[in-house]
Structure formats: structure tokens, C-alpha cells
Design a protein that fits this description.
alpha/beta, Rossmann fold, 9 strands, 15% strand
């Protein structure tokens, strides 16, 4: 798959197209923003799931402030946004944030292969949300010798996606598990070992990562998520907040095509990690980590706790952390702190060769 970099003119043109589409829509843009969760105006990206909270202040509409990627100072990685062709998106192209070890191109490292970490963003986000939210944490973990030098690919999915096949925007499961991984391994020196392939995500991206891991555990060696969108197994116990979200956005976003209208139990169970966990017998060696906070504004703390209980009942090995006072998204700093724990978990699963490729911190460095 051929890759090319987006220039500023193309990015501005795409923003104009998006704005024009929103203005032409029957639902007022401001009213959509008012329904979505996120960080305070101008603050870090939200990772929000619709249904309440403040407007998402960094992704569009009035008061939008485009941030300069260079303000995130990385000492261990180079960063670029890259575009490549894919048949699994109706747009025909995918954009990712690509992080390579800073000395990746040095001839002395020509034979080195690296672990691959794929990041899935939350609703109303894209690949840049990880850059301003989590990239610095990854960089610092590598600098401290706590995470092996690695290749990170932050996916840019449609902002309101369930990361499923059959969506109006394309086949998102195939995009992530086939195209993104194939592009990364074909064009860069990614370790071929399964244990060196990692899938991570936050909010709806966390929901997708858990779903992929539970439904197809052979695809990755480790799955690690934060504030994943998980729900009760019984539809009649679905919180009104989330049921209202589906009712408001179901038709316009195509969710009705995936879940039915009203929601069909079998289709709902196919995307809900807790429902999938009920039938899991063997994760085939997949290492599984997830966490969520007690102050998660969407109630995903207790929901993830319930997922852990189901996995425990099924005797499925996993690591779960309920973070006291932890919030949902990047804005409160919870995810940044939790990343330090999840990345340590990720590192522990790497192959011997990859795990040994760590930076040795200098005294006082």
C-alpha cells in the first residue's frame, strides 16, 4: 500500500468539506456538539461517548482551536501523519499517526525489528487525539527504559464509529485488523511475532479493542484498554443515557443498520464486550488488561467491573483495575496516568528480543 503525507492545504480542504456537510445536515451542528461528551473548551481531547456532558472543544464548530503537533516534544520518536489506500473504507483512504523510534533509519539499526502498538481513539476523536493525549507518556516510558522501543500507529476512524464491519463508512474491523496491520508490517520493520503485536484503545476504541480480542484472540498478543464502553448484558438494564444515544444517532449514523431498531438482542450482544465474555472459553494466550474509573461520567467504571466478574466466572485470565476517582477521558489526566500501568503490562508481554531493546537511561537523565 503506497503511503503519502498530508500537506496543510489538503488538511484545510478536508476540514471545509466536513464543515459543509455538517451545515447541510438536518440536525444543527451546535445541537450535536451539545449532546457529546468531551473536555473543557480548548483543553485536551475528550474520548467521549455521546449522551451528555460539555461540548467537545477541540474537534470543530465555534471556538475550534487547531493545535500544533510540534508542541508535543518527543525525545524517542519521530512523528508523521501518513495516508494510505484501503478498500475497506468508502473514502478509499486511511490516515494514521505514525511513530517510529528516532534512530529507526540509522544504518546500525537496519536489522532491528520492533513491537507494533495500534491505538484506537474514542468517539469524536481521530489519530491526533492520541498525539496530544498519550504520545508523551509513551515517549517518557521508552526514555525511562520501562517500555521497549516500538512502532506506534494511531488509527483515524470515522468520528462516530462502532468499529464494526458493515458500517456506512466501511468495514472498520477489517480496516484495523487487516489493512492497518498489513500496512505497518509491509512498510516498516515490525516484529512478526504475535506477542509483539498490541491493540490498545480508549472509550469506544477500547470497546472495539476488547471486542476484537474476545472474538478473535489470535490476532494480537496483548489487548489493553482504558474507559472502554461496556454495557449490561440485558437490554432492559441498558442505562437510559446510552439507550437515548442510540435512539438519537441510530438512523443518522447507521447504527440502526448494525443493531436494529429497536435494538435486537443478538446484534447488541455481538458488539458488547461483556456479552462476548460470557461465551469465551479460551483466549489462546492473549494477554488482557483493562481499567476504568469510579468517576467515569458514562458509568463505564462499574460496567468494566462487571466485565471483569464475567471473565472471572469464565476462568479467563485478565488484569483489571478500578481506578478510584478516575475520570473517563484525557481531559482529567486519568488516562495519562493509567497508560503508565498499561504500557508496563504491554512491555511484559513482548518477545525476548523485543523486550531487550530498551533505552538505558543515563544517570540523572
Amino acid at each position: 500500500m503506497a503511503a503519502r503525507f498530508l500537506d496543510a492545504a489538503e488538511i484545510d480542504m478536508r476540514r471545509s468539506w466536513i464543515l459543509a456537510a455538517l451545515l447541510a445536515a438536518s440536525v444543527p451542528f451546535d445541537s450535536l456538539l451539545a449532546q457529546e461528551g468531551g473536555a473543557p473548551q480548548g483543553g485536551p481531547p475528550g474520548g467521549g461517548f455521546p449522551g451528555g456532558g460539555r461540548g467537545f472543544g477541540d474537534r470543530g464548530g465555534r471556538g475550534r482551536r487547531e493545535r500544533d503537533p510540534s508542541t508535543v516534544q518527543l525525545t524517542q520518536f519521530s512523528y508523521q501523519r501518513v495516508e494510505f489506500e484501503t478498500k475497506n473504507l468508502t473514502a478509499g483512504k486511511e490516515t494514521v499517526g505514525l511513530y517510529l523510534p528516532l534512530d529507526y533509519a540509522d544504518p546500525v539499526n537496519a536489522d532491528d525489528h520492533y513491537p507494533l502498538i495500534v491505538w484506537l481513539h474514542g468517539m469524536n476523536e481521530d489519530d491526533r487525539s492520541f498525539h496530544f493525549g498519550g504520545a508523551k507518556v509513551v515517549d517518557e516510558m521508552v526514555a525511562a527504559g520501562k517500555l521497549a522501543r516500538c512502532i506506534v500507529v494511531a488509527v483515524s476512524a470515522p468520528s462516530r464509529t462502532l468499529y464494526a464491519n458493515g458500517e456506512r463508512s466501511g468495514n472498520l474491523f477489517d480496516l484495523v485488523t487487516k489493512d492497518v496491520v498489513a500496512w505497518a508490517t509491509t512498510n516498516h520493520r515490525v516484529s512478526p511475532e504475535r506477542r509483539d503485536h498490541v491493540l490498545m484503545g480508549v472509550s469506544l476504541g477500547g470497546m472495539a479493542a476488547l471486542r476484537y480480542g474476545l472474538a478473535a484472540p489470535e490476532l494480537f498478543g496483548t489487548v489493553a484498554t482504558h474507559s472502554a464502553a461496556t454495557f449490561p448484558e440485558e437490554l432492559d438494564k441498558l442505562p437510559p443515557q446510552h439507550r437515548g444515544t442510540v435512539e438519537r444517532f441510530g438512523e443518522s449514523l447507521g447504527w440502526n443498520d448494525l443493531l436494529g431498531s429497536p435494538i435486537e438482542p443478538a446484534k447488541f450482544a455481538a458488539i458488547n464486550p461483556t456479552s462476548l465474555a460470557r461465551g469465551v472459553k479460551d483466549l489462546k494466550g492473549l494477554r488482557l488488561y483493562f481499567d476504568a474509573g469510579t468517576a467515569d461520567r458514562y458509568g463505564f467504571g462499574p460496567a468494566n467491573e462487571e466485565l471483569s466478574k464475567v471473565l472471572t466466572e469464565s476462568k479467563i485470565d485478565h488484569t483489571f483495575r478500578l481506578i478510584e476517582g478516575g475520570e473517563h477521558s484525557w481531559g482529567g489526566g486519568t488516562i495519562q496516568k493509567a497508560l503508565e500501568v498499561s504500557l508496563a503490562f504491554v512491555h511484559a508481554g513482548f518477545s525476548e528480543n523485543c523486550a531487550a531493546n530498551v533505552v538505558v537511561p543515563t544517570p540523572g537523565g
